[in-house]
Amino acid sequence: MRSAIGIDIGGTKVAGLRVAEDGSVLERRERPTPADDVPATVETVAGLAAELAEGGGEAVGVGAAGMVEFAAGTLRYAPNLAWREVPLRDLVSERTGLPCVVDNDANVAAWAEYRFGAARGFRHVLLITVGTGIGGGIVADGALFRGAHGFAAEIGHIIVEPDGPPCGCGNRGCWEQVASGRALDRLARAEVERDPSGRIAALAAGDEVSGRHVSEAAREGDPAAVAAFATVGRRLGEGIAGLVNVLDPEVVVVGGGVAEEGAVLLDPARAAFVEAVEAPEHRPEVPIVPAALGNDAGAIGAAALALGLPA
Ligand SMILES: [Zn+2]
After folding, report:
1. Which domains does the chain have, with CATH numbers?
2. What is the 151 CA–ligand 1 centroid distance (Å)?
Protein backbone atom coordinates (compact mmCIF):
# COMPACT_ATOMS: atom_id res chain seq x y z
CA MET A 1 0.00 0.00 0.00
CA ARG A 2 1.25 3.52 -0.78
CA SER A 3 2.30 5.71 2.14
CA ALA A 4 3.55 9.22 2.85
CA ILE A 5 5.06 11.19 5.69
CA GLY A 6 2.84 13.75 7.42
CA ILE A 7 4.33 16.41 9.70
CA ASP A 8 2.36 18.74 11.96
CA ILE A 9 4.34 21.68 13.36
CA GLY A 10 2.85 22.64 16.70
CA GLY A 11 3.89 25.34 19.13
CA THR A 12 5.47 22.84 21.54
CA LYS A 13 6.09 19.71 19.45
CA VAL A 14 6.61 18.60 15.89
CA ALA A 15 4.56 15.46 15.28
CA GLY A 16 5.49 13.10 12.45
CA LEU A 17 3.53 10.14 11.12
CA ARG A 18 3.95 7.68 8.30
CA VAL A 19 0.45 7.26 6.95
CA ALA A 20 -0.95 4.67 4.53
CA GLU A 21 -3.28 5.72 1.72
CA ASP A 22 -6.25 4.38 3.69
CA GLY A 23 -5.45 6.85 6.48
CA SER A 24 -4.00 4.34 8.92
CA VAL A 25 -0.95 5.38 10.93
CA LEU A 26 2.06 3.11 10.29
CA GLU A 27 4.67 4.86 12.42
CA ARG A 28 4.85 7.88 14.69
CA ARG A 29 7.63 10.04 16.11
CA GLU A 30 7.78 13.48 17.65
CA ARG A 31 10.30 16.06 18.75
CA PRO A 32 10.06 19.29 20.75
CA THR A 33 9.63 22.45 18.67
CA PRO A 34 12.65 24.75 19.10
CA ALA A 35 10.47 27.75 19.89
CA ASP A 36 11.27 31.02 18.10
CA ASP A 37 14.26 29.51 16.28
CA VAL A 38 13.10 29.18 12.68
CA PRO A 39 16.23 27.50 11.19
CA ALA A 40 16.25 24.95 14.03
CA THR A 41 12.53 24.26 13.50
CA VAL A 42 13.10 23.74 9.77
CA GLU A 43 15.91 21.31 10.60
CA THR A 44 13.67 19.49 13.09
CA VAL A 45 10.89 19.13 10.50
CA ALA A 46 13.22 18.01 7.70
CA GLY A 47 15.17 15.66 9.98
CA LEU A 48 12.02 14.04 11.34
CA ALA A 49 10.66 13.58 7.81
CA ALA A 50 13.94 12.03 6.64
CA GLU A 51 13.98 9.67 9.61
CA LEU A 52 10.40 8.50 9.01
CA ALA A 53 11.08 8.11 5.29
CA GLU A 54 13.69 5.44 6.04
CA GLY A 55 10.73 3.13 6.73
CA GLY A 56 9.08 4.01 3.40
CA GLY A 57 6.87 6.77 2.05
CA GLU A 58 6.82 8.40 -1.37
CA ALA A 59 6.20 12.05 -0.41
CA VAL A 60 6.10 14.46 2.52
CA GLY A 61 3.22 16.72 3.60
CA VAL A 62 3.66 19.47 6.19
CA GLY A 63 0.98 21.40 8.06
CA ALA A 64 1.99 24.72 9.64
CA ALA A 65 0.08 27.46 11.44
CA GLY A 66 -0.27 30.77 9.63
CA MET A 67 -0.42 32.01 6.07
CA VAL A 68 1.01 29.42 3.67
CA GLU A 69 1.35 30.28 -0.02
CA PHE A 70 0.44 26.81 -1.19
CA ALA A 71 1.63 27.05 -4.82
CA ALA A 72 5.08 28.26 -3.74
CA GLY A 73 5.32 26.09 -0.62
CA THR A 74 6.26 29.18 1.38
CA LEU A 75 5.25 29.92 4.94
CA ARG A 76 4.74 33.65 4.66
CA TYR A 77 3.53 34.74 8.09
CA ALA A 78 2.40 33.25 11.39
CA PRO A 79 0.68 35.63 13.80
CA ASN A 80 1.89 33.89 16.96
CA LEU A 81 5.21 32.41 15.76
CA ALA A 82 8.46 33.70 14.29
CA TRP A 83 7.83 32.41 10.74
CA ARG A 84 8.33 35.00 7.99
CA GLU A 85 8.78 34.10 4.29
CA VAL A 86 10.27 30.64 4.80
CA PRO A 87 10.49 28.41 1.64
CA LEU A 88 9.64 25.36 3.74
CA ARG A 89 8.58 23.03 0.92
CA ASP A 90 11.89 23.31 -0.96
CA LEU A 91 13.95 23.05 2.22
CA VAL A 92 12.21 19.81 3.27
CA SER A 93 12.30 18.43 -0.25
CA GLU A 94 16.06 19.05 -0.57
CA ARG A 95 16.74 17.38 2.76
CA THR A 96 14.59 14.30 2.16
CA GLY A 97 14.90 13.90 -1.61
CA LEU A 98 11.11 13.48 -1.72
CA PRO A 99 8.37 15.63 -3.24
CA CYS A 100 6.78 17.83 -0.57
CA VAL A 101 3.64 19.89 -0.04
CA VAL A 102 3.13 22.51 2.66
CA ASP A 103 -0.28 23.78 3.70
CA ASN A 104 -1.93 25.59 6.58
CA ASP A 105 -2.39 23.36 9.65
CA ALA A 106 -6.16 23.74 9.75
CA ASN A 107 -6.42 23.10 6.00
CA VAL A 108 -4.67 19.75 6.39
CA ALA A 109 -6.80 18.91 9.43
CA ALA A 110 -9.93 19.70 7.38
CA TRP A 111 -8.66 17.42 4.62
CA ALA A 112 -8.08 14.60 7.12
CA GLU A 113 -11.56 14.93 8.67
CA TYR A 114 -13.07 15.08 5.16
CA ARG A 115 -11.18 12.03 3.88
CA PHE A 116 -11.12 9.82 6.98
CA GLY A 117 -12.93 11.48 9.91
CA ALA A 118 -16.05 13.28 11.06
CA ALA A 119 -16.83 14.86 7.67
CA ARG A 120 -16.56 11.70 5.58
CA GLY A 121 -19.43 11.50 3.13
CA PHE A 122 -19.96 15.27 2.93
CA ARG A 123 -18.73 17.51 0.08
CA HIS A 124 -19.03 20.95 1.73
CA VAL A 125 -17.26 21.17 5.05
CA LEU A 126 -16.16 23.88 7.45
CA LEU A 127 -13.54 22.78 9.97
CA ILE A 128 -12.79 24.96 12.97
CA THR A 129 -9.92 24.21 15.34
CA VAL A 130 -10.38 25.71 18.77
CA GLY A 131 -7.17 25.54 20.78
CA THR A 132 -5.05 28.39 22.06
CA GLY A 133 -6.33 30.26 19.00
CA ILE A 134 -8.79 29.49 16.20
CA GLY A 135 -7.93 28.02 12.81
CA GLY A 136 -10.17 27.19 9.88
CA GLY A 137 -10.27 24.91 6.86
CA ILE A 138 -12.84 24.84 4.10
CA VAL A 139 -13.67 21.95 1.79
CA ALA A 140 -15.89 23.21 -1.03
CA ASP A 141 -17.41 20.64 -3.36
CA GLY A 142 -14.80 18.05 -2.42
CA ALA A 143 -11.70 20.27 -2.74
CA LEU A 144 -9.79 22.39 -0.28
CA PHE A 145 -10.67 26.04 -0.78
CA ARG A 146 -7.46 28.04 -0.47
CA GLY A 147 -8.38 31.35 -2.13
CA ALA A 148 -6.14 33.20 -4.60
CA HIS A 149 -2.86 32.76 -2.68
CA GLY A 150 -3.51 29.98 -0.18
CA PHE A 151 -4.44 32.32 2.67
CA ALA A 152 -8.19 31.57 2.84
CA ALA A 153 -9.93 30.47 6.05
CA GLU A 154 -7.79 32.48 8.50
CA ILE A 155 -11.05 32.78 10.39
CA GLY A 156 -9.54 33.38 13.81
CA HIS A 157 -8.62 36.92 12.83
CA ILE A 158 -12.05 38.30 11.99
CA ILE A 159 -12.54 41.31 14.27
CA VAL A 160 -15.65 40.77 16.38
CA GLU A 161 -14.88 43.27 19.18
CA PRO A 162 -13.09 46.39 17.91
CA ASP A 163 -12.13 47.41 21.44
CA GLY A 164 -11.46 43.86 22.57
CA PRO A 165 -8.25 42.22 23.79
CA PRO A 166 -5.08 42.67 21.69
CA CYS A 167 -4.22 39.84 19.28
CA GLY A 168 -0.90 38.38 18.07
CA CYS A 169 -1.75 39.65 14.57
CA GLY A 170 -1.63 43.29 15.73
CA ASN A 171 -5.38 43.95 15.80
CA ARG A 172 -7.77 44.03 18.74
CA GLY A 173 -10.81 41.85 19.37
CA CYS A 174 -10.16 39.07 16.86
CA TRP A 175 -12.57 36.15 17.08
CA GLU A 176 -9.83 33.89 18.51
CA GLN A 177 -9.42 36.30 21.42
CA VAL A 178 -13.02 35.79 22.57
CA ALA A 179 -13.86 32.23 21.50
CA SER A 180 -10.82 30.03 22.15
CA GLY A 181 -8.34 28.99 24.84
CA ARG A 182 -7.12 32.59 25.13
CA ALA A 183 -10.62 33.65 26.18
CA LEU A 184 -10.74 30.85 28.75
CA ASP A 185 -7.37 32.02 30.11
CA ARG A 186 -8.79 35.53 30.59
CA LEU A 187 -12.03 34.30 32.15
CA ALA A 188 -9.98 32.08 34.47
CA ARG A 189 -7.96 35.04 35.72
CA ALA A 190 -11.11 37.10 36.24
CA GLU A 191 -12.80 34.27 38.12
CA VAL A 192 -9.84 33.76 40.45
CA GLU A 193 -9.91 37.46 41.24
CA ARG A 194 -13.66 37.35 41.86
CA ASP A 195 -13.53 34.18 43.96
CA PRO A 196 -10.03 33.43 45.31
CA SER A 197 -11.38 30.47 47.27
CA GLY A 198 -13.22 28.91 44.30
CA ARG A 199 -12.44 25.61 42.59
CA ILE A 200 -10.48 27.18 39.70
CA ALA A 201 -8.18 29.00 42.15
CA ALA A 202 -7.74 25.79 44.13
CA LEU A 203 -6.73 23.83 41.04
CA ALA A 204 -4.22 26.51 40.03
CA ALA A 205 -2.77 26.18 43.56
CA GLY A 206 -0.75 29.37 43.35
CA ASP A 207 0.53 28.73 39.80
CA GLU A 208 -0.49 31.02 36.97
CA VAL A 209 -4.15 30.25 36.36
CA SER A 210 -5.17 29.29 32.81
CA GLY A 211 -7.88 27.74 30.69
CA ARG A 212 -6.45 24.33 31.59
CA HIS A 213 -7.68 24.83 35.15
CA VAL A 214 -11.10 25.88 33.82
CA SER A 215 -11.26 22.64 31.81
CA GLU A 216 -10.34 20.60 34.86
CA ALA A 217 -12.92 22.38 37.04
CA ALA A 218 -15.61 22.06 34.36
CA ARG A 219 -15.05 18.30 34.24
CA GLU A 220 -15.84 18.25 37.96
CA GLY A 221 -19.01 20.25 37.28
CA ASP A 222 -17.81 23.49 38.91
CA PRO A 223 -20.52 26.08 38.03
CA ALA A 224 -18.06 28.97 37.45
CA ALA A 225 -16.01 26.84 35.04
CA VAL A 226 -19.11 25.61 33.21
CA ALA A 227 -20.25 29.26 32.92
CA ALA A 228 -16.88 30.25 31.43
CA PHE A 229 -17.22 27.52 28.80
CA ALA A 230 -20.77 28.71 28.09
CA THR A 231 -19.50 32.26 27.48
CA VAL A 232 -16.77 31.07 25.14
CA GLY A 233 -19.12 28.56 23.49
CA ARG A 234 -21.67 31.25 22.73
CA ARG A 235 -19.05 33.45 21.07
CA LEU A 236 -17.94 30.41 19.10
CA GLY A 237 -21.50 29.67 17.95
CA GLU A 238 -22.13 33.28 16.89
CA GLY A 239 -18.98 33.20 14.77
CA ILE A 240 -19.92 29.85 13.25
CA ALA A 241 -23.30 31.36 12.27
CA GLY A 242 -21.55 34.14 10.33
CA LEU A 243 -19.31 31.64 8.57
CA VAL A 244 -22.24 29.37 7.72
CA ASN A 245 -24.06 32.41 6.26
CA VAL A 246 -21.03 32.94 3.99
CA LEU A 247 -20.08 29.36 3.10
CA ASP A 248 -23.27 27.28 3.40
CA PRO A 249 -21.52 24.05 4.43
CA GLU A 250 -23.32 20.75 5.05
CA VAL A 251 -21.47 20.17 8.30
CA VAL A 252 -19.26 22.08 10.74
CA VAL A 253 -16.51 20.02 12.38
CA VAL A 254 -14.99 21.46 15.54
CA GLY A 255 -11.58 20.16 16.63
CA GLY A 256 -8.63 21.37 18.69
CA GLY A 257 -7.67 21.00 22.34
CA VAL A 258 -10.42 23.19 23.83
CA ALA A 259 -13.10 21.48 21.72
CA GLU A 260 -12.05 18.14 23.20
CA GLU A 261 -13.97 19.18 26.32
CA GLY A 262 -17.07 18.34 24.25
CA ALA A 263 -20.64 19.27 25.17
CA VAL A 264 -19.70 21.90 27.76
CA LEU A 265 -18.40 23.98 24.83
CA LEU A 266 -20.40 22.64 21.89
CA ASP A 267 -23.89 22.76 23.43
CA PRO A 268 -23.78 26.55 24.06
CA ALA A 269 -22.15 26.96 20.65
CA ARG A 270 -25.01 25.08 18.98
CA ALA A 271 -27.63 27.14 20.85
CA ALA A 272 -26.01 30.46 19.90
CA PHE A 273 -25.56 29.26 16.32
CA VAL A 274 -29.25 28.51 15.86
CA GLU A 275 -30.17 31.94 17.28
CA ALA A 276 -27.68 33.78 15.08
CA VAL A 277 -27.67 32.02 11.72
CA GLU A 278 -29.86 33.53 9.01
CA ALA A 279 -33.31 31.96 8.80
CA PRO A 280 -32.60 28.63 10.54
CA GLU A 281 -36.19 27.49 9.92
CA HIS A 282 -35.68 27.88 6.16
CA ARG A 283 -32.45 25.91 5.80
CA PRO A 284 -31.57 22.27 6.41
CA GLU A 285 -30.01 21.69 9.80
CA VAL A 286 -26.24 22.22 9.80
CA PRO A 287 -24.78 19.77 12.32
CA ILE A 288 -21.93 21.05 14.50
CA VAL A 289 -19.96 17.90 15.32
CA PRO A 290 -16.73 17.10 17.16
CA ALA A 291 -13.66 16.18 15.11
CA ALA A 292 -12.85 12.47 15.01
CA LEU A 293 -9.10 12.28 14.48
CA GLY A 294 -7.84 14.25 17.47
CA ASN A 295 -4.22 15.38 17.49
CA ASP A 296 -3.36 13.20 14.50
CA ALA A 297 -5.62 15.09 12.07
CA GLY A 298 -2.96 17.56 10.90
CA ALA A 299 -0.29 14.99 10.11
CA ILE A 300 -2.76 12.53 8.55
CA GLY A 301 -4.21 15.25 6.32
CA ALA A 302 -0.77 16.48 5.32
CA ALA A 303 0.23 12.95 4.32
CA ALA A 304 -3.01 12.44 2.39
CA LEU A 305 -2.43 15.70 0.51
CA ALA A 306 1.15 14.64 -0.26
CA LEU A 307 -0.21 11.41 -1.78
CA GLY A 308 -2.55 13.48 -3.93
CA LEU A 309 -5.42 11.27 -2.91
CA PRO A 310 -8.58 12.06 -4.83
CA ALA A 311 -11.81 12.88 -3.01
ZN1 LIG B 1 -5.84 38.53 15.23
Report:
1. 3-113+295-306 (3.30.420.40), 121-291 (3.30.420.40)
2. 14
Ligand 1 centroid vs 171 CA: distance in angstroms?
Answer: 5
CA dist 261 and 267 (Å) reads: 11
Instruction: Say how many Å lie between the CA of residue 241 and the centre of ligand 1.
Output: 19
Which residues is 84 bridged to in the sheet? 77
CA of 154 to the centre of ligand 1 (A): 9
pLDDT along the chain (311 residues), means of 10: 95 94 97 90 96 96 94 89 90 96 96 98 98 96 95 95 94 97 97 97 95 97 98 98 98 96 97 98 97 97 90 50
Strand order in the sheet with 251-255: 143-144, 134-140, 125-130, 251-255, 288-290
Quote the ligand 1 centre to 174 CA distance (angstroms): 5
- Residue 220 alpha carbon to ligand 1 centre in Å: 32
Could you tell me the distance, in angstroms and rounded to a whole number, from the CA of residue 183 to the centre of ligand 1?
13
Helix or strand (DSSP H, E) at 56: none
Q: Which of 35, 33, 54, 55 is nearest to 44 (CA)?
A: 33
